[in-house]
């Protein structure tokens, strides 16, 4: 792929892109980190970048504004977030790498908007639920989804250090190979609500389990797995991610011993 043109900044946010003064000392690691950040976060719209090809979606589909089909590059999915003149906290952005995230590859900053370029998206749980009752998720599938979501959430909380803030059926994607991924992490980096948000994220996983399991069958009529599923879905409000990951509902070996 050809070199991407360096885009000029339409806004002044010098506090976020500080250049070292001539009399300052910059270590190699600092220089490399700054260069990496500048490659990841760019000024301007992605659609004006040279040697890159995007197809816009109208209407927007599953939150996607455009799809990138650039030669010799993986397909990229673009979402747009309006900022309404708000200052953009550039330092909050970081490239992600986790099997349970729709990973963020690039961020583009304009005067009024942010553009997030993600790796490939899948089908959302919201879309899957629309297939009910023709297609219904069972307890085993729900357990798998919740386990993988919790793994991704642990990465968001501990490695990125933020809350997701919007864990719902719309932001959980199932990929072609069956992988489960959390979407819209770029927006979460902007709207991070701290420890309270992290606690709410965990509650949202249990809420998601209740939604996917449904309420048509009483736990007592669904056997041991049904009882474990109900116990997981109604976990205490102060439960931790690690505690939920150890729950028997998410672990087939433990389920067989229960």
UniProtKB/TrEMBL annotation:
Keywords: ATP-binding, Nucleotide-binding. Pfam families: Pkinase (PF00069). Gene3D superfamilies: Transferase(Phosphotransferase) domain 1. Residues 1-258 form the Protein kinase domain. InterPro entries: Kinase-like_dom_sf (IPR011009), Prot_kinase_dom (IPR000719), STE20/SPS1-PAK (IPR050629). One of its GO terms (molecular function) is protein serine/threonine kinase activity. SUPFAM superfamilies: Protein kinase-like (PK-like). GO terms for cellular component: cytoplasm. PANTHER family: STERILE20-LIKE KINASE, ISOFORM B, STERILE20-LIKE KINASE, ISOFORM B-RELATED. This is Protein kinase domain-containing protein. It comes from Aspergillus tanneri. The lineage of its organism: Eukaryota, Fungi, Dikarya, Ascomycota, Pezizomycotina.
């Amino acid at each position: 792929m050809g070199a991407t043109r360096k885009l000029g900044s339409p806004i002044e946010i010098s506090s976020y892109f500080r250049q070292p003064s001539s009399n300052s000392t910059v270590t190699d690691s600092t220089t490399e980190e700054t260069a990496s950040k500048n490659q990841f976060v760019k000024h301007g719209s992605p659609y004006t970048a040279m040697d890159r090809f995007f197809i816009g979606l109208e209407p927007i589909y599953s939150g996607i504004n455009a799809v990138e089909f650039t030669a010799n590059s993986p397909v990229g999915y673009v979402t747009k977030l309006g900022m309404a003149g708000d200052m953009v906290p550039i330092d909050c952005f970081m490239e992600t790498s986790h099997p349970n995230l729709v990973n963020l590859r690039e961020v583009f900053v304009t005067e009024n908007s942010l553009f997030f370029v993600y790796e490939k998206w899948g089908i959302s749980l919201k879309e899957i639920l629309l297939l009910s009752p023709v297609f219904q998720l069972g307890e085993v599938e729900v357990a798998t989804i919740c386990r993988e979501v919790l793994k991704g959430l642990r990465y968001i909380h501990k490695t990125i250090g933020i809350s997701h803030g919007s864990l719902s059926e719309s932001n959980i994607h199932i990929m072609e190979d069956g992988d489960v991924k959390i979407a819209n992490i770029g927006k979460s980096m902007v709207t991070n609500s701290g420890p309270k948000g992290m606690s709410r994220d965990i509650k949202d996983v249990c809420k998601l389990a209740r939604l996917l399991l449904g309420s048509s069958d009483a736990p007592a009529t669904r056997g041991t797995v049904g009882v474990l599923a109900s116990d997981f879905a109604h976990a205490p409000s102060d439960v931790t991610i690690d505690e939920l990951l150890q729950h028997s509902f998410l672990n087939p070996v433990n389920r067989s011993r229960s």
